[in-house]
Amino acid sequence: MDQMAMLKKAQEIATKKMAMDKELAQQDYVGEAAGGNVKVTVKYVPPLPMQQPGYEGSKVDIDEAYLQNASSEELSDAVAEALRDAYKKCTTEVAMKLAELTKDLGSMMGGMAAAQ
Predict the structure, then answer these.
(1) Could you tell me which residues are beta bridge partners of residue 4?
(2) 2, 23, 69, 94: which has the highest count of C-beta atoms within 10 A?
(3) pLDDT single digits (tens) 2-47
């Protein structure tokens, strides 16, 4: 593959990656705990070049009745569990999208990229 074709393919992959990051950043990933009484929302934060992506909590919802009846330890554990659940959902989605992008890269480069 000549250099101009490789540059064009690299630009195409970069464009796809930016579109993917934008799509992922617009989604809310909600984790639940305590039978749905505690919900934590996490957002994907697209990475700067050459850095890892970030994730940030953006919302916590706690059922009023659960809040009144739960001990501080139960509440703390439930919030932590809901946060882990949301983080897992978000990172799983990001991994799936990156696997698709890697597959596209492999097919675009004629199978030169390692398959995931």
Answers:
(1) none
(2) 94
(3) 788 778 887 888 888 889 999 999 999 999 999 999 999 999 999 8
* Residue tagged 């992959």 (tokens): 13
Structural domains in the chain, sorted by start: 25-108 (3.30.1310.10)
For every residue of 44-113, DSSP letters joined together read: EEPPPTTS--EEEEEEEEE-HHHHHHS-HHHHHHHHHHHHHHHHHHHHHHHHHHHHHHHHHHHHHTTT-S
DSSP three-state, residue 41: strand
In this structure, what token pair is assigned to residue 95?
């991994």
Cβ atoms of 82 and 66 within 8 Å: the answer is: no
Contacts for 67 with CB less than 8 Å, ≥ 6 apart: 75
Tell me, yes or no, if the pTM score tops 0.85.
no
